[in-house]
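The aim of this short unit is practical: by the end, you should be able to scan a pair of folded records and say something sensible about each. We start with the first protein, listed as its amino acid sequence and then its structure tokens.
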Amino acid sequence: MPDSRVARRRRYLVCEPRHFAVRYAINPWMHPDRPVDVLLAQRQWRTLVDTYRDHGHTVETVKPEPGLPDMVFAANAAVVVEGRVFGSLFLAPERRPETVAYEAWFKAGGYEVHHPESVCEGEGDLVPAGRWILAGTGFRTTREAHREVQEFFGVPVIGLTLVDPYFYHLDTALFVLDEENVAYYPEAFSPGSREVLARLYPDAVIATREDAMAFGLNSVSDGRHVFISPGAAALAAQLADRGYVPVPVDLSEFHKAGGGIKCCTQEIRS
């Protein structure tokens, strides 16, 4: 079975955690009185970047800006599908200036960026999944933004309601394994959304709360390799049983801000 999984080369955009810190609290993970080891965060981040490149992926970087401690979480800046960029409008005022730096990066690369009219937090809540886009709501991104996304991309958008504040973004509760399947933690979703996911993905990999709290679902898959938190051991074992290759990468310092591997990784889909 392992040989049946095919990796596809990806292009990722990341941001060095030079100014990473927890200066405010906008999710349950954040405690400004808990110190952050910036040097450790930088080492962990560099390991992630090196690991992507070692597996054949292209990694590009956007320059970090002083005063924007969460800019390292590149996934929240936009969602890119077929070379089209749908930008972000963060709920928290502290994060809104991040969009200027990311928009400048995209413009320098020849992209046009659509500015959302409603609160929308990029790949944090918008997860391209083959024929459709899975879209989270409940804590950050609004349902109005879901409609905007569908009109912009012309791709069906499937709204999913998040109900647990520890899983405030969709990418903390679900990730795409390949064009056909996902892994997720059911209790992060409303009853109706759980039913939708069960219908769409009857063979999904189901994570435990322990795996989810270890940021196991804030993972990145290239179709074969799954870059995953080493704390999500049971989930990694399930993935291996399904023929995927877990690649543990420790981003534990970023958990203090409510982020992990996927939060630090924006995929440029061209």
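Turning to the second protein, read its sequence before its tokens, just as you did above.
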Amino acid sequence: MTSVDLTVGGVVAEPVRVPRLTDQEGHKLQQIVRRGSTSSVRYRRAMMLLASAGGNRVPVIAQLVQADEDTVRDVIHRFNEIGLACLDPHWAGGRPRLLSPDDEDFVVQTATTRPTKLGQPFTRWSIRKLVAYLRRVHDRVIRIGREALRCLLARRDITFQHTKTWKESPDPERNAKLDRIEYVLERFPDRVFAFDEFGPLGIRPTGGSGWALAGHPERHPATYHRTHGVRYFHGCYSIGDDTLWGVNRRRKGASNTLIGLRSIREARPDGAPIYVILDNLSAHKGETIRRWEKKNRVELCFTPTYASWANPIEAHFGPLRQFTIANSHHRNHNVQTRALHAYLRWRNKNARHPEVLAAQRKERARIRSEKGIRWGGRPLPAAV
């Protein structure tokens, strides 16, 4: 049977072809062919229909789309019956399911169970190991191929992920400290500051990323002897003004902490009470600092143990690392310090820059990912 004229009962049959398309049908078929489609079936069928509407006969269309002539005829007949709905194939039921819903649940439960709990001498499943184990389970035998297993796990939202760690704060005053930090941030944002050390900062070429000619990335020399020592950036951040400043020191210590706290106190020369959020480092709790705190109307709000993410300044160290340390090769600490302070001046003038905000969001996500939840939501203590 061909697409040439057919004789049926002595009458010459008309060739198989698509009738005149409406504007809507023509635009739809052109859109599918021009833009492509996620379904190769829809794409090929749209080409068949457009070629037929253009006057091409079935053998020519079959050669154009590399399909059988009977397939082309079936598509054209189907279009004449139901219109553009013929573009979507109606697949047959396919092979009967070999796994019952209970078997699928068992596969998912096995995949999400550590192999050591099932007597296997490894710490994670691979697709091959899981398939082999399922075929020799004592209670039931599940025969499933690797690709079918991969599709089943994807359908059940089971993915291969990196293991994450987290620390639970053992601080008995954890909730009280978080409540206090949350309280001062909400009630007195213009009088809240944050302090922390960032480092150690060494003198070494640091990898990063940047624009370069394809295949010719920027290269930094390797270092084997580092004789410059390290520095620590003592950072101060004003919540109300969204301003970041600080200085590099050779080491952490109570004296350097006190200098940083004094610079914070000078940021509010009106003498109003201020609140400084900082972590539990021993250098932040010296007797000298305690006396100075009481004398200068300063309240130190300490974060709980293993909860440095509650310090607002942590999110601003991410951009600092990204824009001044990554992809750098400073000759010495003086050059490094000048670069750091140049960035701070730019950052304070462009605090709402999209790249700065994006880096801050990324850093917040990183430092909060240990627990994956936000603190707060508890009743605030009475004002004092």
